[in-house]
Amino acid sequence: MTAIRGNVDRELWARKLPETEVVELAGISIYVLHDLAQLDLKPKAARFNVVISGHSHVPTQETREGVLYFNPGSAGPRRFQLPVTIGKLRIEAGKVEAQIVILNV
Question: With CB atoms counted within 10 Å of each terminal CB, which end of the chain scores lower, N or C?
Answer without folding.
Answer: N
